[in-house]
Amino acid sequence: MKTYFVTGGAGFIGCNFVLNLLSSQNTRVINYDKLTYAGNLESLASVGNDPNYFFAEGDICDRNLVENLLKQHQPDYIINFAAESHVDRSIDGPAEFIQTNIVGTFELLQAARDYWNALSNEKKAGFRFLHVSTDEVFGSLGDDGYFTEETPYAPNSPYAASKAASDHLIRAYHKTYDLPVVTTNCSNNYGPFQFPEKLVPLMIHNALAGKPLPVYGDGQHIRDWLYVEDHCRAILTVLEKGNLGEVYTIGGNNEKTNLEMVHTLCGLLDEMRPDSPHVPHQSLIHYVSDRPGHDRRYAIDSGKIQNQLGWSPKETFETGLRKTVRWYLDNPTWVERVMSGAYRGERLGLGASGGSR
Q: How far is Cα 294 from Cα 257, in angstroms, rounded to an integer?
């Protein structure tokens, strides 16, 4: 039985990864999460009583707590999802992003290194540390081309810069200390359990409530969309088969403008909720001023992971988005509970609070 130490396992991608792990046999999962506004144990209610699931609340900046948990549970793998992840929030208050994404990654690496050095040779040989990152570290593409593992870093937001720094720390700990690490950089994820500040769930939530659907600028910013379960399979593939010290870019081969995404969501809601008083939901679209430093286009070449490790996405844009809308329509209680915290769907990313925490 393999043991997985998952940081940020109560967040969007993390909880999907945990649920997928526990659906298989002979797997133990230690979920270590700070439970910020975006971390929600409600997402993991179905495995709360699973004897192979253990939850510990804590911050990756707390090296002593991490070290104690690693010694106690003796994991074979560490998967680092823990991060502040919303670009708009990083514009309003970058300090938390520096603390969690840079300092936290450093503290986690130090704890992992000490743990790994103390393992037997056999356990050492099988240990892996996987760091989950983003394509935003590469900056903005022009009309042509794709991000690859060789693309130079050029982050344009405080969030992207903090993730870029964490990626460099991961690389340094492999090169300097031989820590067995792998890194993944993924495109925009969507799917079940995503906090409603991100584009897809926010648009669904607002449309059902008859609220404006805010589209930044001209709506022509392009993103490559990846269904979260495809991403989770990719992470597991890299963890088990990836070459140590290497990076794998993961995308869904689904380039869409933000406006295309919103139009598609509105069409699905019109179809699935024809009795809604807000049909056609597209009439709710409202253009707002663009976000500072808004990258124009992201697109990922996933050739390396597909050709070398045999992964490819199972969901198309159409099938994945339909599943996603269906999930949010079928789980209104989850949405109501996560929206009961501090976030109320207001506009973020205007830089009003500067560098405050």
A: 13
